[in-house]
């Protein structure tokens, strides 16, 4: 981010939490036919998007913290860096940014993750060519993964674990896609088979 008046790069204030209170002008519409009665002043989206609680720069930092560390560890580091975010906020930012993509997918990785450990699991889909998350599915059911794979017909390679759910979905949805499965699933050989080292 750059300072608006002199175009110099904005510099953080050495480890101290800085909170900006922005005063926004509000305008009222007196027309009887107008559906919206109150209008608020807007700022450029690269500085402060509409309805934002964080600057674009802080939003990017929060996103990278969530990607690198996840919910609880990311929130712990954010606390030490004086960033006021919770573990739920980190996951919410990742979900919100995961929905934007434009290019067709060629090589994906699909695996499950815990929304809440031992309670609720979801499915994570990554674009392995561009190294980014492209979808977070609400559960780890075969039907959900299969529906998503059918909607993205350009997929050529699916990297997955040896769990049955994703293998079945990848076989049925894009049948021409090549499947790549890892050697071990859950940290031990599948079906008790000894894996040579």
Automatic annotation (TrEMBL):
Highest taxon above the source species: Bacteria
InterPro entries: Transpos_ISL3 (IPR047951), Transposase_DDE (IPR002560)
Domain (Transposase IS204/IS1001/IS1096/IS1165 DDE) ranges: 108-183
The protein's name in its UniProt record: Transposase IS204/IS1001/IS1096/IS1165 family protein
């Amino acid at each position: 981010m750059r300072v608006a008046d002199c175009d110099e790069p904005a510099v953080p204030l050495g480890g101290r939490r800085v909170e900006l209170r922005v005063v926004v002008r509000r305008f009222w519409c007196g027309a009887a036919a107008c559906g919206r009665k109150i209008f608020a002043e807007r700022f450029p989206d690269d500085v402060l998007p509409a309805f934002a609680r964080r600057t674009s720069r802080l939003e990017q930092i929060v996103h990278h913290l969530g990607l690198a560390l996840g919910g609880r560890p990311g929130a712990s580091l954010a606390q030490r860096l004086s960033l006021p975010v919770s573990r739920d906020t980190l996951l919410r930012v990742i979900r919100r940014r995961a929905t934007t993509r434009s290019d067709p997918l060629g090589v994906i990785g699909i695996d499950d993750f815990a929304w809440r450990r031992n309670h609720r699991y979801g499915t994570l889909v990554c674009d392995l060519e561009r190294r980014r998350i492209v979808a977070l599915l609400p559960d780890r059911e075969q039907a959900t993964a299969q529906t998503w794979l059918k909607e993205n017909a350009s997929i050529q390679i699916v990297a997955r674990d040896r769990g049955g759910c994703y293998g079945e979905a990848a076989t049925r949805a894009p049948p021409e896609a090549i499947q790549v499965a890892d050697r071990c699933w859950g940290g031990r050989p599948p079906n008790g088979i000894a894996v040579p080292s």
